[in-house]
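Workshop exercise sheet. Pairs work together: one partner reads the sequence aloud, the other fills in the structure field after running the prediction. Swap roles for the next sheet.
Pair: D.N. / O.F.
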Amino acid sequence: MRGGMATGVAVVMSIVAAACAQDVAAVETAVERGITGEVSFKYDHAALVAVAQQDLDAPMLLRLEQDARDPESYTARFIGSVEGEYDLRDLIRLRDGSPVPDLDPIVVRVVSNLPESLTTDLFDAADIDVNVSGGYRRTALLVVAAWLAIPVIVIARRLMRPKRVVEVVVEAPAPTLADQLRPLVVAAAAGELSVAEQGRLELLLYHYWRERLSLQGMDMAEAIGRMRRDDEAGELLACVEGWLHRPEPDAHDPARLAALLKPYGSTPAVSEDDLQVGEPETAVAS
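Structure field:
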C-alpha cells in the first residue's frame, strides 16, 4: 500500500516538475514587442539558415547565427512587431531552401505592455495623430538653414578677402669681368681713357690671363708685353691702344664691343682685394 502511494507521489511530482520547466521555458522566450530576443538550440543533421528576403512588415523577423566553434549550436535572434505566439521553425530552412523536417518546435511569445486601448501592431502606430507644434518645425528649419549657410559664409569670406600681393624680388645678375671692362673700353674708344684707368684695365686683363699665359712673377711691363704677343689676349689691348692714339667715331658699335668683351662675359668680376693681391710687385703701365 505504502509502495503504491510512493509511486503515485513520484508521478505527480514529475508532472509538476515538467509543467514548471515548461513555464520557465515559456518565461525565458517571452519578449516584449520591438525588442530583440534570442533562443539557442542544437541541430546536428545539416546546416541551417534563416529564410531569405524576409518582409520587413512581417510580424516576426529572424536572424540565425551558427557557432563557429560548435557547428551544431545555433542562436536565433528575433524581433516581433505583433503580440502573439510564434514558432521560429517557420523562418528556418535548410541551405537548399527546403523546410527542416526533424527540428523541434522553437516557440516564442511576443508580449506588449501597452494599454489595451492601443493597438498591438507596431506598424499601426503610424496612424496615431501626433501634433507637432509650428515652433519645432521653425526651429528645425532654422537649424538646417544655418547648417547650409556655413559653407556659403566661408566661401564668401574667402572671395571677399583681399588678395595677398606677393612681391617678387628679382635678383640682379652677378657682375662679370666684362661688366668691369666695358666702361674702360668705351672710354678708350672715345679717346677719354686716363692713365689710371688704363692701368686698371691692364690689371684686370692681367688678373684674367696670368694663369692662362703663366704670367706669375713677371712685372707688369713684361706681363703686358706677353699679352700683346698673344693673339687672343692681345686683341682687346691692341684695340684700346689704337683708340688712345686714333679715336674712332664708330668704336661704340655694340656688336663690336660685344665681340671684344665676349671672352670675359662668363668670368665673375674681380674684387678690389683680389685685384690688389694679383698686382705684380712692379707695376708699370704701358
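Discussion prompt: The CA atoms of residues 227 and 233 lie 5 Å apart. What would you look at next?
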